[in-house]
Amino acid sequence: MSERVIPLIDERQRKIDSHVPVIPEQLLTPNGLLADTRGRRLHDLRISVTDRCNFRCTYCMPKEVFDKDYPYLSHGDLLSFEEIVRLAKIYIEHGVEKIRLTGGEPLLRKHIEKLIEMLASLKTLSGQPLDLTLTTNGSLLRKKAQALKDAGLTRMTISLDGLDDATFQQMNDVGFPVGDVLDGIEAAREVGFKNIKVNMVVKKGTNDHEIIPMAKYFKGSDVILRFIEFMDVGASNGWNMTEVLPSAAVIAKIHETFPLTNIDPNYPGEVAERWRYVDGSGEVGVISSVTQAFCKDCSRARLSTEGKMYLCLFATEGHDLKALLRAGKSDLEISNAIAQVWSHRTDRYSELRGSPEMEGKRKVEMSYIGG
After folding, report:
1. Which residue, 321, 307, 333, is CA-closest to 23?
2. Pick the residue with more confidence: 198 or 244?
3. Of the N and C termini of the chain, which has fewer Cβ atoms inside 10 Å?
4. CA 24, 118, 268, 258 torsion: positive or negative?
5. Interatomic CA distance for residues 271 and 261, integer angstroms
6. What is the 3-state secondary structure of 171-240?
7. Which position has the higher pLDDT, 80 or 355?
8. In this structure, are residues 141 and 158 in contact, taking their beta carbons and an 8 Å threshold?
9. Is the distance from CB of 96 to CB of 43 less than 8 angstroms?
């Protein structure tokens, strides 16, 4: 059992560095071709709609940190639905075609289906519907699936870290039964969601024995199972490299039982490496940000619950867009501020992991900006 290192209560309340982005003097009309210093285009926007969650997964929101006294954001600190949609429109003008709603647990945000309906009415620069998706722990899906579908949600991803109830409850740390998540997945399928993805975070020595049972369970269905390496996001999850099972080992393990063959990504910058079963009974994916950095193609911006833009899942600073919104700045001014931030982007944390350059830098928590 590896030692867990959890920040003290006074340490966890320190906020990560953030600042209000500068609005350039010369304002330019966006052309949908925004790129950073490495030529990476802005294509995906991930929006965290709440910092709250009803699970206490040990790799994301451990009880030792996120206890009953944890100071969550007040409602007035959150971006309103109207502010979220306004920013989404600005990002779309810069080339965003995919928006993912995250949390915390996004289904805990009141009237989330109203926000989805508002976002679903937006079009990309080419006039196509947005790829509008959501990541959830599945606990509320039986209750919410129909409303989400009716509101215009395109796809969804469900987090599930094992089929064995004892293992799953150990991972979510609130005693939530795996059967209710599986029922939520079934509810999503019943109302017509297609290409549902299930994400399993793999921690060596904790749930890696669940890899084959998970593959077997979803093989032959229209659900795409993806395995995620345990990542060093933030400072609260007690990350230890010895608990990382490389994706290559995951694929090798599955291949021994169910032969696989590699397939092309759906689009440039897709983080998951895709594999399909040789017998044609579906596909699996792996996300390998620890052992196989995909920084060179990263096309994602992240918007926190309180309106701060982050350029990386492992970011060490944020850019306060809410301050611009509430100071009465115009869409064009905010658009140019975003463009200036992205065009100076150099982030490549996974390529620098463990280097002196990253030593001692405080990273944003995953529960604050979504996975």
Report:
1. 333
2. 198
3. N
4. positive
5. 18
6. HHCCCCCHHHHHHHHHHHHHCCCCCCEEEEEEECCCCHHHHHHHHHHHCCCCCEEEEEECCCCCCCCCCC
7. 80
8. yes
9. yes
> pLDDT for 47-59, tens place per residue?
999 999 999 987 7
Sorted by sequence, the CB contacts under 8 Å of residue 128 that are 6+ apart come out as 97
Rounded CA gap, 215 and 217, in Å? Answer: 6
- In three-state secondary structure terms, 123 is strand
Rank 232-246, 284-298, 318-332, 346-360 by mean pLDDT and report only the highest: 318-332
Task: Band the pLDDT of 11: cuts 50, 70, 90.
Answer: very low
pLDDT (tens digit per residue) in 288-347: 877 777 788 889 999 999 999 999 887 878 999 999 999 999 999 999 999 999 999 998
Burial of residue 134, with CB atoms counted within 10 A of its CB: 0-12 exposed, 13-18 middle, 19 or more buried: buried
Percentage of the chain with pLDDT > 90? 68
Which element (helix H / strand E) includes 83? helix 81-93
- Three-state secondary structure call for residue 136: strand
Strand partners, 201: 228
Is the torsion defined by CA of 249, 369, 112, 300 positive or negative? negative
Distances (CA, A) of 360 to 22, 60, 199, 261: 27, 20, 30, 40
CA distance linking residue 317 with residue 325, whole number of Å:
19
Contact 95, 34 (CB under 8 A): yes
**pLDDT band at 151, cuts 50/70/90?**
very high
